[in-house]
Predict the 3D structure of the following.
Amino acid sequence: MLGWFKKKIARPASDEEVSPPDQQEEAVVGEPGPEEAKSILHEDVGVLFKRLTKGLAKTRGGFIKRVDELFLGKKVIDPELLDDLEEILITADLGVETTMDLVDDARDRVSRNELADPQALKAILKERITDFLLSSDRPAELVMPTEGPFVIMVVGVNGVGKTTTIGKIAHKFANAGQRVLLVAGDTFRAAAVEQLKIWGERVNAPVIAQATGADPSSVVFDGMEYALKRRYDVVIIDTAGRLHTKVNLMEELKKIKRVIGKKLSDAPHEIMLVIDATTGQNGISQAREFGKAVDITGLTLTKLDGTAKGGIVVNICREFDIPIRFIGVGEQVEDLRDFEPEEFVEALFAEESDS
Ligand SMILES: Nc1nc2c(ncn2[C@@H]2O[C@H](COP(=O)(O)OP(=O)(O)OP(=O)(O)O)[C@@H](O)[C@H]2O)c(=O)[nH]1
Ligand SMILES: [Mg+2]
């Protein structure tokens, strides 16, 4: 799994030349990470998959289980079955359009006699859901710049899991041998800086911060200077998460982005929107609102362990041409998975027995 992440964060060899993926994997890491890193490096892929399927148990229980129950003992696909399927898909947050697309397609296939029984329909659902998840045109990999720090700005409404996700991402980079700096751009909430500092200690990354109420852009300015001077590999910037309906938050984010860009052209290289998967359709409107203010380049969906409505993942992939980089399936540092569509669908459709 970490090997895959290494590939994801590959630094191109030079401006002109981008090495092929198999060489990038060699080129990316410097010194081996701390002791702790080794345990992750040697973690069994099977164990990681089990963690993912466990994290998605609720989603599976609410979505695939209902599909299974509906199909159980049915020999034919009749209109009533398709109506029931439609309801299950909609209540699982797949969204109206995605649901209609899937069900209309099923209807067509039935009328062309292409689907023998409900099990064949289940296989088609799985296949088409995978297609939706793979359809983004944007590069799925986080590509680090050839030189200078890789700057990630993390945005999202309050409580979605930004700071936690930052801690988890920092851990991944640190394990891949990268020097990480954290910047406490959330100066609004009293405990925000403290929370980031705790994560900084956990993953051995310094945190640039000022007092609560300070100008976030000024903290970010300091952070960028510090990172450039001391040649950090990765800078991750936390931001405040007050309601996205407040215009001033969006203005603040634009300003932070400008400050970063002034210190380092091309940066931020990644503007990551964090969405709480349990909020369902709300996540879609958040992506729209934040997208208007700053160009979102990647998504992280958190708290998938806490929802029976994992369909939001499919809905978001279909609605926006923004790749999902990570999914959060728990509160622990290891509970941030690289988003791999096929693996995700397998975990979603996995049999109950292993969890
Ligand atoms: N179950 C679960 N909990 C999560 C996940 N990610 C974050 N959390 C929890 O969600 C809560 C909020 O997380 P924060 O990281 O503080 O969220 P935030 O977006 O930084 O919040 P603000 O700073 O208030 O805007 C915490 O209790 C986290 O432990 C996840 O993937 N699964
Ligand atoms: Mg926070």
Observations:
- The first helix runs from residue 2 to 8.
- The pocket of guanosine-5'-triphosphate (ligand 1) is lined by residues 156, 158-164, 186, 189, 192, 241, 302-303, 305-306, 328-331, 335 (CB under 6 Å).
- Residues 3 and 212 are 39 Å apart (CA to CA).
- The beta strands are 150-155, 180-185, 207-208, 234-239, 270-276, 298-302, 324-328, 336-338.
